[in-house]
Design a protein that fits this description.
There is one protein chain. The relative contact order is 0.28. Strands 1, 2, 3, 4, 5, 6, 7, 8 and 9 form a 9-stranded mixed sheet that branches. Strand 7 and strand 8 form a beta hairpin. The protein is an all-beta fold. It is globular, with a radius of gyration of 12 Å. Helices cover 0% and strands 64% of the residues. It starts with a strand and ends in a 5-residue tail after the last strand. It is built from no helices and 9 strands.
Length: 91
């Protein structure tokens, strides 16, 4: 079993992540979700919320995001948000 996933996270204007992660926690229109390795494939609409990402080294990134779309497919997560505001601690 692979213990990481590829995350591609962007807005129409900038790419924020293109890296391997352990997990992501965010909120869809159906409620709070946590995506871990080997998650089933799906597509969902994301609500404006605070999202948390943990990379493969254990570093956590937190940001506020607008609505967006997330696709999970074969260990790869692709998310497009209208806007992202990174916390200052993510530098």
């Amino acid at each position: 079993m692979n213990n990481n996933m590829k995350l591609k996270l962007c807005t129409p204007y900038k790419e924020y992540f293109n890296t391997d992660i352990k997990k992501i926690i965010t909120e869809s229109i159906g409620g709070k979700i946590e995506i871990l390795p080997s998650h089933s494939n799906f597509i969902t609409v994301l609500k404006p919320t605070n999202t948390k990402v943990e990379d493969i080294k254990g570093k956590e990134y937190n940001f506020s995001n607008s609505a967006g779309i997330m696709q999970v497919e074969n260990g790869e997560i692709k998310i497009v948000f209208e806007e992202i505001h990174m916390d200052n601690n993510n530098a």
